[in-house]
Amino acid sequence: HPAHFSRAILGARGEVQGYGVVCPSEAGWRIGPLFADAPTDAARLLSSLRGAVPPGDQVCIDVPASNPAALAMMEAAGMERVFEVKRMYKGEVPSMPMERIYGLTTMEVG
Q: Are 90 and 34 in contact (CB under 8 A)?
């Protein structure tokens, strides 16, 4: 999307340690994905992405309930839960590094 903002955190050797995107949505702005190796990096990215949004605009993010650090970070940032969704699979559940996923990739990324 042309109006999106993206941010990344790079390590000493230039490796990506975290990244996130915020895009306009029907009801304000939506953050996702938001991936980070460490909770402190995720918090820095969240703050930077929220700072890219015009003051007063609504910001949403879909947080995986299986990452307690992500839920705690959103509460500490003053965000509130408005609804929940369930991810469902038929067959084997794929293995994913949930401790690194703070915001799910959204359809607004396009």
A: no
Asked if 12 and 1 touch (Cβ cutoff 8 Å), the reply is no
How far, in Å, CA of 18 to CA of 10, rounded?
7
Q: 15-52: buried (b, 16+ CB within 10 Å) or exposed (e) per residue? A: eebbbbbbbbbeeebbbbbbbbbebebbbbbbebbbee
| pTM > 0.85 | yes
Instruction: Tell which residue, 23, 22, 20, 25, has the closest CA to residue 8.
Output: 20
Q: What is the mean pLDDT of residues 4-26?
A: 95
Q: What is the pLDDT of residues 73-96, one digit of tens each?
A: 999 999 998 877 777 889 998 898
